[in-house]
């Protein structure tokens, strides 16, 4: 509810205008039965045509003003609801941008997607209907009973009791339906998880001829969702018939009791007509409200799910930090890791006692087996997730004392899994530097060995890039990712196993180009292939989350057992301290 109250106070003008329009609409609706009563008792009963004309004229004005207010109210309610949808999606997007990898993982990508799309739509739709159909109902009920009471306290009991009965039924059904409605959204998440997996892995499913099993699993999720929907709909199916039943009973009772009172001469026929009108109006609003109330539990559950994300305090929060306390030591190291320890979500440590430096203007490499923690080092360096203990210094400044923006400005990163955004080759290249000149783009493309295949594209730099870069091969995507990182001016370039999809020759040409044309730049290269990192100034050998050696390629080949094993597995023979290499 917090986000909702915040939204109304931020959109005060339109909220107040909507409230005024709805109030005028309600007043118009309530005035009509009163005027009908007056028309019958004062005009028709007395046979005075001028009174009939006057009250008739008043009814016309009320109908026109009420109608106009209703149109304005509808428009404003719809606008308010659409604005809510727009703003909350914007906040949601900004919040997800701030969340660390672990924050995102603890929610799950599928649920974040459902919350941002379906949940927001649920709340938006219910908000519009709430303003138009639910909000007026209690006011209409209250005034209708009050007006009936003023004219005939005895008759007022009939709508009053019927309203109380109806509210009890609504309360009971809501209590039953609310927990089930939260379940519906959760089941929708489950469908999203399965469908994302299905679309991402569709080729694997076909390759392993696993269609039937996958279809069964997916159908199970569809069926769970449908079952929840059926159960909730069953519960609320009682609401409208109960309202119609009460409407009939109230109508019969008022005519019956009202007729008796008119017969006794204690009530005028016009008042009975007005009371019937009021009661019908009340129940008509209650029926309309009932139709919307059915959607409320689900929307409330959606609102809670949205607010859960919006209220998350990001693990890495720039607003929490005081960046004024930065000390700028002059150091020859651009990055220093000191006794860094890290574990994912409280599990076993993935990095233990990691201490090393990345010297300015040099190439540092991290090598190690699968799962040894190489990519995790890059992630903690980029502050995508926070370390458990130890410290990381960037250019002499503690990582915690750097804002995300400052850090991103200093570092350019090529992820392990190359990813392109939908658009063109040029729009992807310009991501890190929108102001880059044509020459700068061409230089980066040349360095990344992407020039030949861009030249092969009919549209060249304007060639279309599909979502995720799926219309390019793995090697092409990787070269474009590298070029994109090189377009960005940075103090440190991180390549996280970024050369693995390149053939050996391209890999060699790329390294040669970086060496000769980006001399003086600082690189961190994470790799498994020794050929990729053999020329690095410093190689860090990682094994099961620990550093087991540091040095040059030749030093490590001579002195480091794990590195030697690695070398042997890659066709480099190490015998009696002599190295026989057969790599580029
Ligand atoms: N998001 C995550 N949540 C939980 N554990 C993770 C996550 N990412 C990686 N790990 C675990 O952390 C360890 C180190 O993973 P990391 O990706 O850093 O290894 P790596 O050396 O880069 O491996 P590879 O060369 O295969 O990419 C692995 O045991 C992995 O299972």
Automatic annotation (TrEMBL):
PROSITE patterns: ABC_TM1F (PS50929), ABC_TRANSPORTER_1 (PS00211), ABC_TRANSPORTER_2 (PS50893). Keywords: ATP-binding, Cell membrane, Membrane, Nucleotide-binding, Transmembrane, Transmembrane helix, Transport. GO terms for molecular function: ABC-type oligopeptide transporter activity; ATP binding; ATP hydrolysis activity. The chain crosses the membrane at residues 55-76, 130-150, 156-174, 235-257, 269-296. It comes from the Bacteria. InterPro entries: AAA+_ATPase (IPR003593), ABC1_TM_dom (IPR011527), ABC1_TM_sf (IPR036640), ABC_transporter-like_ATP-bd (IPR003439), ABC_transporter-like_CS (IPR017871), P-loop_NTPase (IPR027417), Type_1_exporter (IPR039421). GO terms for cellular component: plasma membrane. Residues 16-298 form the ABC transmembrane type-1 domain. It is a multi-pass membrane protein. Its main location: membrane. The keyword Cytoplasm does not apply. Residues 335-569 form the ABC transporter domain. The keyword Cell membrane applies. SMART domains: AAA. It is found in: Cell membrane. It holds the Pfam family ABC_membrane. This is ABC transporter ATP-binding protein. The lineage of its organism: Bacteria, Bacillati, Bacillota, Bacilli, Lactobacillales.
């Amino acid at each position: 509810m917090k986000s909702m109250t915040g939204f109304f106070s931020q959109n005060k003008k339109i909220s107040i205008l909507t409230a005024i329009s709805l109030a005028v609409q309600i007043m118009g609706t309530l005035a009509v039965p009163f005027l009908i009563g007056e028309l019958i008792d004062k005009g028709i009963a007395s046979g005075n045509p001028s009174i009939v004309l006057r009250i008739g004229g008043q009814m016309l004005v009320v109908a026109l003003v009420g109608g106009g207010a209703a149109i304005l109210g509808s428009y404003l309610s719809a606008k308010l609801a659409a604005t809510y949808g727009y703003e909350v999606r914007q906040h949601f997007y900004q919040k997800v941008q701030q969340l660390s990898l672990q924050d995102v993982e603890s929610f799950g990508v599928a649920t974040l997607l459902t919350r941002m799309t379906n949940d927001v739509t649920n709340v938006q739709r219910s908000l519009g209907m709430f303003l138009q159909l639910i909000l007026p109902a209690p006011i209409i009920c209250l005034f209708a009973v009050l007006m009936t009471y003023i004219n005939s306290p005895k008759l007022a009991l009939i709508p009053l009791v019927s309203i109380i009965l109806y509210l009890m039924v609504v309360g009971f059904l809501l209590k039953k339906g609310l927990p089930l409605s939260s379940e519906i959204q959760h089941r929708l998440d489950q469908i999203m998880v399965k469908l994302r997996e299905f679309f991402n892995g569709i080729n694997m499913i076909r390759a392993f001829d696993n269609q039937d099993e996958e279809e069964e699993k997916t159908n199970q999720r569809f069926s769970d969702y449908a079952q929840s929907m059926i159960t909730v709909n069953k519960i609320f199916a009682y609401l409208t018939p109960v309202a119609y039943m009460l409407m009939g009973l109230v109508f019969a009772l008022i005519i019956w009791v009202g007729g008796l009172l008119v017969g006794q001469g204690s009530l005028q026929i016009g008042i009975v007509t007005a009371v019937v009108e009021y009661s019908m109006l009340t129940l008509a609003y209650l029926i309309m409200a009932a139709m919307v109330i059915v959607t409320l539990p689900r929307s409330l559950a959606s609102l809670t799910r949205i607010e859960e994300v919006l209220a998350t305090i990001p693990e890495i929060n720039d607003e929490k930090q005081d960046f004024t306390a930065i000390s700028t030591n002059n150091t020859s190291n651009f990055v220093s890791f000191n006794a860094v320890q890290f574990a994912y979500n409280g599990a076993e440590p993935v990095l233990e006692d990691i201490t090393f430096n990345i010297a300015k203007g040099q190439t540092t490499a991290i090598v190690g087996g699968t799962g040894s923690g190489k990519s995790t080092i890059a992630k903690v360096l980029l502050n995508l997730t926070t370390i458990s203990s130890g410290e990381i210094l960037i250019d002499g400044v503690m990582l915690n004392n750097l804002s995300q923006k400052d850090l991103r400005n200093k570092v350019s990163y090529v992820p392990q899994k190359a990813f392109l955004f939908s658009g063109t080759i040029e729009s992807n290249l310009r991501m890190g530097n929108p102001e880059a000149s044509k020459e700068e783009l061409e230089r980066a493309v040349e360095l990344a060995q992407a020039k030949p295949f861009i030249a092969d594209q009919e549209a060249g730099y304007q060639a279309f890039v599909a979502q995720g870069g799926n219309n390019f091969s793995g090697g092409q995507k990787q070269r474009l990712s590298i070029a994109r990182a090189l377009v960005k001016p940075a103090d440190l370039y991180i390549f996280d196993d970024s050369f693995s999809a390149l053939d050996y020759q391209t890999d060699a040409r790329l390294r040669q180009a970086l060496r000769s044309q980006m001399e003086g730049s600082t690189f961190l290269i994470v790799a498994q292939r020794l050929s990729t990192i053999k020329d690095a100034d410093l190689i860090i050998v990682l094994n099961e989350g620990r550093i087991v050696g540091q040095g040059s390629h030749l030093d490590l080949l001579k002195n480091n057992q794990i590195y030697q094993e690695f070398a042997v597995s890659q066709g480099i023979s190490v015998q009696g301290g002599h190295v026989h290499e057969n790599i580029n």
